[in-house]
């Protein structure tokens, strides 16, 4: 815990809301055409309530991973599953597939009242069960990778503030360090990227190493934080089968409106 105690104040400072919009850089590729999206169809936008969104990814035809803090409203209440929709491969109003959410569970131990603690980063994962499966022939789910190692090269596909109409792919960024279930990446993400999959290569295939929980959006040196997934996801699957309810509490996160710099209280997802 020594490393995390030392770094946590820095992490918390980095998680303050950004003051400006993120500009597209040469490191980000907008997946505009159907050919560009090939292979990434399972990544989509998780639309929440009246315009809020995060990023999510299929891990089974009827299961989507996203960040736990996305499923709480600004009053800290668990969002009704009926208000959540997954739009696989959304680009400029066109989707590969769109489904409602029948139910969901957030990771055990995640406490939205506690804000961005080390334990919350480890547990910032939610599993959504779709109302109907999306056939793998349309959007093939991704498998999980094992635990990451320092210096490992990764990639990220995400939606975000001012780039919410189509996914952006960062072909390569790096894992700076991993300690006690938390990873730091030098990946270019922003509000709305919460829940975005961080991919590692396994031979010729991409597998999900982590999800974006938070990061430093407002700096020349971009930083993102994620968590180890295998144990958390295994527990979430068991909880989903048992239909355990999500916990409602105060999130302590922030929300902004897409296309602007205006901030509002609530969960850390972007709101068009």
TrEMBL record:
Residues 40-272 form the Peptidase S1 domain. It comes from the Bacteria. Residues 1-23 form the signal peptide. Pfam families: Trypsin_2 (PF13365). It is an enzyme of class 3 (hydrolase). GO terms for molecular function: serine-type endopeptidase activity. The keyword NAD does not apply. Belongs to the peptidase S1B family. This is Serine protease. It comes from Roseovarius marisflavi.
């Amino acid at each position: 815990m020594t490393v995390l105690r030392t770094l946590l104040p820095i992490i918390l400072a980095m998680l303050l809301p950004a003051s400006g919009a993120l500009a597209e850089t040469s490191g980000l590729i907008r997946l505009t055409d159907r050919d560009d999206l090939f292979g990434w169809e399972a990544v989509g936008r998780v639309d929440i309530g009246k315009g809020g969104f995060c990023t999510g990814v299929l891990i089974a035809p009827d299961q989507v991973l996203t960040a736990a803090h996305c499923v709480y409203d600004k009053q800290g209440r668990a969002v009704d599953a009926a208000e959540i929709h997954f739009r696989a491969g959304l680009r400029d109003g066109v989707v590969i597939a769109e489904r409602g959410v029948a139910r969901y569970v957030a990771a055990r131990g995640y406490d939205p009242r506690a804000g961005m603690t080390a334990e919350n980063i480890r547990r910032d994962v939610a599993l959504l069960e779709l109302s109907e499966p999306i056939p793998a022939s349309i959007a093939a789910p991704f498998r999980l990778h094992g635990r990451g190692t320092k210096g490992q090269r990764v990639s990220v596909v995400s939606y975000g503030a001012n780039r919410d109409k189509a996914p952006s792919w960062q072909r390569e960024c790096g894992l700076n360090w991993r300690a006690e279930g938390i990873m730091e990446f030098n990946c270019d993400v922003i509000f709305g990227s919460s829940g975005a999959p961080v991919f590692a290569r396994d031979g010729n295939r991409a597998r999900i190493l982590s999800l974006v929980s938070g990061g430093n959006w407002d700096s020349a040196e971009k930083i993102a934080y994620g968590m180890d997934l295998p144990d958390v996801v295994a527990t979430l699957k068991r909880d989903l089968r048992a239909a355990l309810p999500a916990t409602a509490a105060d999130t302590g996160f922030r929300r902004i409106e897409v296309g602007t710099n205006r901030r509002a209280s609530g969960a850390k997802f972007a709101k068009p």
